[in-house]
Amino acid sequence: MPTTHRLVSAALAAALGVTALAACGSNGGQAGGDSGGGTGSKTVTLVSHDSFAASPAVLKEFTKETGYTVKVLKSGDAGEAVNKAVLTKGDPQGDVFFGVDNTLLSRALDNGLFTPYTAKGLGAVDPSTQLDRAKHRVTPIDSGYLCVNYDRKYFSDHRLAPPSTFADLVKPQYKNLLVTENVATSSPGLGFLLGTVARYGDHGWQDYWKKLKANGVQVVDSWEQAYDQDFSGSAGGKKAKATRPLVVSYASSPPSEVLYAKPRPKTPAQAPTGVATGTCFRQIEFAGLLDGAKNTAGGKALINFMIGKRFQEDMPLQMFVDPVVEGVREPAVFTEFGAKITNGETMSPSRIAAHRDQWTQAWSSLLVK
Question: Distance (Å, rounded) from C-alpha 258 to C-alpha 235?
Answer without folding.
Answer: 9
